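Priority: medium. Attachment 1 of 2:
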């Protein structure tokens, strides 16, 4: 039974019992008053009648009017009991002090009521002054209300029990009938309910509140959808935590950056306890915007943590996670490049400066002057080549190739041209340089393609053994044109293959001075491949050889 049903049920029971008790008390009071009034009236009539008879016929006839219900007494003016139907007159005490006797002597009639010591009975007296000066008194005994009630206890209890049972049954039904329409209200459509008129204002208010809540939910869902759309399309990680460090919301990028693949909850420190993250969170929760960095799985991240306020109190923090690995790597490469360029430029310039200084001194023998001049020329050429390669890389980095247009280039023909230009270098090194394959065309910049093939073939000669082989092959595949340059040289350790395309990187730094070149050849090849949307791969084994493969999209597909 619901709380409302219980309240209705209890109220009805209490009301029913109170009404029943009140009715019984009222009925008893009315009936008792009625009987008391009737008794007094009967006593008065009987006393007047007997007085009339005694005044006419004498006291001798009084015995004819005595009965069990009433007591008749004749009292002299001085209070002496002359006659009594219930007791011996001589044994009775003087009645001159009785209230009804005093009133009868004074007024002609008198009445009074006296209760027994136990209060269970009361006696009503009515007295009349007779013609001879004596007083006729008639008395009748009646039970009091208490006595009557005590006598009616069992019937009253039976009635109360029956009334209670009926009240229970009727109250249950009544409460059910009252509550059922309320329980069956359709709160999804409050305005469509047919129920008590008194509930109409409440239902109207519920309907209005329901519409307001629906609009608020729709607005919140829209905002949440927009927020999710924005955060899920962010490349930056996004975390919101409360003041207890519990994660409130996040985006997929945050999971990816932190190396997590499952939904997360609880404290953010469960998943990452790096000093950078802890420092940023502590600063943000103390009310200060903070920036720090951390490393996860070999990658570098920048953290920006901002406090979240509510009524001037910090309730949490928003953390933005940025993957700065590439930018740091680029910065490192820039520093290395700057350092390498400075070194590569300084070396020939130092040599040139030294030889020039000695020539300026004027005490250099004629035969050495020619050697010094040649050294100055060689170092200048090396410097010019280095600057030329740097300019080429810069043009490729910026996508600026001198305004040259793409054209249809036959890689086999271009490879033959490169072989002819490097034939003298190959002979000096004792390396056999060959070109094989078939005619295949790509859409590209001739100058860049020439640089790519030249640098690959030049490396195949430089890092080869005496009597080794270097091969340039061109293959016209179904979806691509494949350029492959292989050699039988010293090869590259597997730990170094990922770095050989870096600028100025040399595998064997001890031999870098022995092998001519700027150290930018493979970097030019890599950037040229990127410019032509080509894929470049390297396969090398130490003391066996190296093969570099460049796969170009076909001319018709570029």
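Attachment 2 of 2:
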């Amino acid at each position: 039974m619901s709380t409302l049903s219980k309240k209705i049920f209890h109220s009805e029971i209490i009301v029913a019992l109170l009404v029943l008790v009140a009715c019984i008390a009222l009925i008893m009071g009315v009936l008792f008053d009625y009987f008391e009034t009737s008794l007094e009236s009967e006593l008065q009539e009987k006393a007047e009648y007997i007085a009339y008879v005694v005044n006419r016929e004498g006291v001798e006839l009084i015995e004819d009017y005595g009965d069990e219900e009433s007591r008749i007494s004749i009292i002299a003016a001085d209070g002496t009991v002359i006659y009594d139907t219930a007791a011996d007159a001589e044994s009775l005490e003087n009645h001159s002090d009785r209230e009804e006797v005093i009133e009868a002597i004074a007024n002609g009639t008198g009445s009074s009521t006296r209760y027994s010591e136990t209060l269970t009975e009361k006696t009503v007296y009515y007295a009349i002054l007779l013609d001879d000066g004596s007083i006729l008194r008639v008395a009748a005994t009646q039970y009091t209300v208490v006595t009557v009630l005590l006598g009616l206890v069992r019937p009253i209890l039976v009635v109360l029990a029956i009334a209670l049972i009926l009240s229970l049954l009727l109250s249950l039904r009544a409460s059910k009938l009252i509550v059922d329409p309320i329980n069956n209200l359709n709160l999804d459509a409050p305005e469509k309910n047919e129920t008590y008129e008194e509930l109409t204002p409440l239902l109207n208010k519920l309907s209005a509140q329901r519409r307001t809540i629906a609009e608020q939910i729709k607005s919140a869902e829209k905002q949440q959808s927009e927020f999710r759309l924005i955060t899920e399309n962010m490349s930056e990680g996004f975390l919101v935590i409360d003041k207890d460090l519990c994660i409130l919301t996040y985006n997929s990028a945050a999971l990816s950056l932190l190396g997590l693949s499952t939904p997360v909850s609880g404290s953010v420190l469960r998943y990452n306890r790096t000093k950078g993250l802890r420092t940023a969170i502590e600063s943000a929760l103390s009310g200060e915007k903070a920036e720090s960095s951390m490393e996860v799985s070999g990658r570098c991240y920048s953290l920006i943590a901002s406090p979240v306020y509510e009524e001037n109190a910090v309730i949490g923090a928003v953390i933005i996670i940025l993957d700065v690995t590439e930018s740091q790597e680029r910065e490192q490469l820039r520093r290395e490049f700057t350092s390498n360029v400075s070194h590569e430029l300084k070396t020939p310039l130092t040599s040139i400066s030294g030889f020039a200084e000695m020539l300026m001194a004027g005490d250099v023998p004629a035969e050495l002057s020619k050697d010094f001049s040649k050294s100055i020329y060689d170092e200048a050429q090396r410097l010019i080549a280095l600057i030329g390669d740097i300019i080429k890389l810069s043009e490729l980095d910026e996508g600026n190739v001198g305004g040259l247009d793409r054209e249809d280039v036959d890689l086999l023909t271009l490879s033959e041209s490169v072989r002819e230009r490097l034939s003298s270098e190959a002979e000096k090194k004792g390396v056999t340089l060959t070109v094989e394959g078939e005619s295949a065309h790509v859409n590209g910049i001739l100058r860049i393609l020439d640089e790519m093939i030249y640098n690959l073939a030049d490396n195949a000669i430089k890092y080869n053994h005496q009597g080794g082989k270097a091969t340039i092959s061109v293959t016209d595949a179904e979806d691509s044109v494949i350029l492959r340059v292989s050699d039988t040289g010293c090869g590259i350790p597997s730990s170094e293959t990922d770095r050989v395309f870096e600028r100025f990187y040399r595998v064997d730094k001890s031999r870098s001075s022995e092998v001519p070149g700027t150290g930018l050849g493979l970097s030019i090849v890599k950037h040229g491949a990127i410019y032509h949307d080509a894929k470049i791969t390297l396969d090398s084994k130490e003391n066996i050889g190296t093969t570099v493969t460049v796969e170009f999209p076909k001319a018709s597909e570029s």
